[in-house]
Specification:
677 residues; alpha/beta; OB fold (Dihydrolipoamide Acetyltransferase, E2P); Rossmann fold; seven-stranded parallel beta sheet; six-stranded parallel beta sheet; binds adenosine-5'-diphosphate; binds magnesium ion; helicase; DNA helicase activity; hydrolase; nucleotide-binding
Length: 677
């Protein structure tokens, strides 16, 4: 009866139970699963190994009657002399006058506190009469609220264990315990609360982490299965011959990776279940071509397609290139926040009556009063963060199209199989042939003039350059080179035949559009910009990317910026101007110069930053575990994923009795009971 309220436990009264409720501990089960957030490991070391100023634990015999002195109001100082390894050590305790009565000459004491190696003195924070049984003593420390202390909590948990411990049922089949050498569920909890030694701690943590990850993966995969079974009948019967012809329109051959991703997408579109797929591909791997073919598939199936992108610049760019690509095969339109009212009305009508085949735009596309005639496919480019939200919006509009998310922000495998565990994933893991790796250099600011001369030389060769500055306005707090200043500096530096352009988020959108157009047509050779060009912008003739204050950007963002060059067949360069203040900053710059591989880079970024930061703080969908850590427990995560797959694919939860307890536990999860989006 572990689901009884904690009040049932001896030693827990109303007030205690209230405090526990504030810690979200309601039932006995909650209590048993409330784990220490850390452990104090008290290890008795020989005196010679104690380090000055460290927190240490020593054991010895009280030599004389302790001397107690009072000072100030109610303050006291108790000094003991303790014999340790035949050396007389002074132990000082503040405001513990009561200890004088407890500690008599001849008593053995264990003392923990700060060690002063020069005076052979310990300032005691914790003491215990008697010897510590083992040379190592591990004390659990819980995060607590109200009047609850770690000590009190430990006591009631121990009581709960005594009275209810036998009810902790094993959920893993015994074959798992055997092959992974895992302790039972009950032993695991006991050892996590009351570890006897480091080994117990290690094994119990290992088991708990595996269990957390397995449950999580099972949940994700069950959800995914549910998505698939929830057939909405949105089969898209596209015309294969037309697609073949369409692919001939590209001035290049699709790479094998593009082909196989496309096959997976098309298979989903043809099937009756709703596609929920993530297409991952490093910057420049050619996701747009895959998107274009998929959109055309919808059109040949008599439906409409939508391509949603995060910025107007990108929407404009996709619009231009897709319009050209489709020619009169499909009617392609652009809808953004700055589409003029009259035009907007025409487009909305066309969407509703089905005259518009393909619509490209920012996220206003699905949020506004936009109604579709028959929306078959939605592609969301470069916007993995908002996936969940947008799926919900679509559903709220009564639309159940196939959905494809494309991302060039390389999501490390660890995150892809957790945060996106309920999606299918396709990866373009191959670059178009003939690409030269971008050469990345890290320099200091005093190199600036030389960089400009370098740019001048390449521009005279017919190439183009970006210079990225982080902010558009000067701020006295941050001495960031401002884009406008930079623009003026360059105007002065370069001869008049080299045209310099300025791009930032606050420009009116028609001006943005014209600047990008001028740059794309090489009427502007050097573009000073903020990070608005970060995602997706495709000007293959640009070969130099200079990033100011590079240490202020995240690695993934730097990689995105770098991805703006190296898109043609000429050698490209990425120059990072940075003077990082700390080691992590220096490390990040070095990583950039060492690898061009977005996935490798993302893994290393994740290691430096931790998963919480990877998507920004408020990223939803990154699960919180009690003990598991997606970066450090990567191997366990992978094992758990495979095991979960095996369990779900073979229906073991339902047809193998040894999985019964596991199934029962999962059935308690609310998200598995109600239909998710
Ligand atoms: P991203 O994956 O970053 O969105 P894009 O789709 O913008 O990449 O493609 C980058 C560039 O590569 C474009 O100029 C595109 O025309 C070109 N490209 C795409 N696929 C191929 C291919 N198979 N062979 C050669 N060039 C390609
Ligand atoms: Mg792209």
């Amino acid at each position: 009866m572990l689901n009884q309220p904690v009040l049932q436990v001896k030693g827990i009264g109303e007030k205690f139970a209230e405090d526990l409720a504030n810690m979200r501990i309601f039932t006995i089960e909650d209590l048993l699963h409330y784990l220490p957030y850390k452990y104090n490991v008290l290890e008795i070391l020989p005196l010679s190994e104690l380090i000055h100023d460290d927190k240490v634990t020593i054991m010895g015999r009280v030599l004389y009657e302790p001397s107690l002195t009072f000072y100030g109001r109610k303050k006291s100082r108790l000094v003991l002399t303790v014999e340790v390894e035949n050396v007389a050590i002074k132990a000082v305790m503040f405001n513990r006058s009561f200890a004088k009565k407890q500690l008599k000459p001849g008593d053995i004491v264990t003392l923990t506190g700060k060690w002063d190696a020069h005076r052979l003195q310990i300032t005691v924070s914790n003491y215990r009469k008697g010897a510590q049984e083992e040379s190592t003593d591990i004390q659990p420390i819980y995060s607590v609220k109200g009047d609850v202390t770690s000590y009190k909590l430990k006591k009631v948990i121990s009581q709960a264990f005594k009275d209810y411990g036998d009810e902790i049922t094993e959920i893993l089949p015994s074959s798992y315990l055997k092959s992974y050498k895992l302790p039972t569920r009950k032993d695991t909890l006991r050892m996590l609360h009351f570890p006897q030694n480091n080994l117990e701690l290690k094994h119990s943590r290992r088991r708990y982490i595996y269990e957390e990850l397995l449950l999580f993966q099972l949940k994700m995969q069950l959800l995914r299965k549910k998505h698939r079974e929830a057939t909405d009948g949105n089969t898209q019967n596209y015309d294969e011959d037309k697609l073949e012809q369409f692919i001939q329109r590209f001035p290049f051959q699709l790479t094998n990776a593009q082909k196989s991703s496309l096959e997976q997408i098309l298979r989903d579109m043809r099937s009756p279940y709703r596609m929920n797929r993530l297409l991952q591909g490093d910057v420049g791997s050619g996701k747009t071509a895959v998107a274009a073919v998929s959109l055309y598939a919808s059109v040949t199936a008599g439906k409409q397609g939508a391509l949603m992108v995060p910025t107007e610049i990108l929407a404009e760019q996709h619009y231009q290139s897709l319009k050209e690509l489709f020619g009169d095969l499909a009617s392609v339109h652009l809808l953004t926040g700055s589409t003029k009212t009259k035009e907007r009305r025409t487009i909305l009508e066309g969407l509703e009556n089905g005259e518009v085949d393909i619509i490209i735009g920012t996220h206003a596309l699905i949020q506004d009063d936009v109604k579709f005639n028959d929306l078959g496919l939605v592609i969301v480019d470069e916007q993995h963060r908002f996936g969940v939200e947008q799926r919900r919006t679509l559903r709220d509009k009564g639309l159940q199209p196939d959905v494809l998310f494309m991302t060039a922000t390389p999501i490390p495998r660890t995150l892809a199989i957790t945060a996106f565990g309920d999606m299918d994933v396709s990866a373009i893991n191959e670059m178009p042939a003939g690409r030269k790796a971008v050469e990345t250099l890290w320099v200091k600011e005093n190199m600036f003039e030389r960089i400009l001369k370098f740019i001048e030389k390449h521009v005279n060769n017919g190439e183009q350059a970006y210079l990225i500055s982080p902010l558009i306005e000067e701020s006295d707090k941050l001495d960031i080179q401002n884009a406008v200043d930079l623009y003026h500096t360059l105007l002065e530096f370069f001869p008049p035949e080299i045209k310099v352009g300025l791009m930032h988020g606050r420009l009116p959108s028609d001006e943005k559009e014209s600047v990008m157009k001028e740059f794309a047509e090489n009427n502007i050779q050097v573009l000073v910009s903020t990070t608005v060009v970060e995602v997706g912008v495709n000007v293959p003739n640009a070969t130099i990317m200079v990033i100011y204050d590079a240490e202020r950007f995240g690695l993934s963002q730097l990689h995105q910026l770098r991805g703006r060059v190296g898109r043609g067949d000429k050698q490209s360069y990425c120059i990072l101007i940075a003077e990082p203040k700390n080691e992590v900053g220096k490390e990040r710059m070095s990583i950039m110069t060492e690898t061009n591989n977005g996935f490798e880079l993302a893994e290393r970024d994740l290691q430096l930053r931790g998963p919480g930061d990877f998507f920004g703080r408020k990223q939803s969908g990154v699960p919180e575990f009690k003990l598991a850590d997606m970066v450090h427990d990567y191997r366990a995560l992978e094992t758990a994923r495979q095991d979960a797959e095996h369990i779900v694919q073979n229906g073991l939860l339902y047809n193998d009795p040894s999985y019964e307890n596991l199934r029962k536990l999962l059935e308690k999860d609310p998200s598995l009971q109600t239909k998710m989006d």
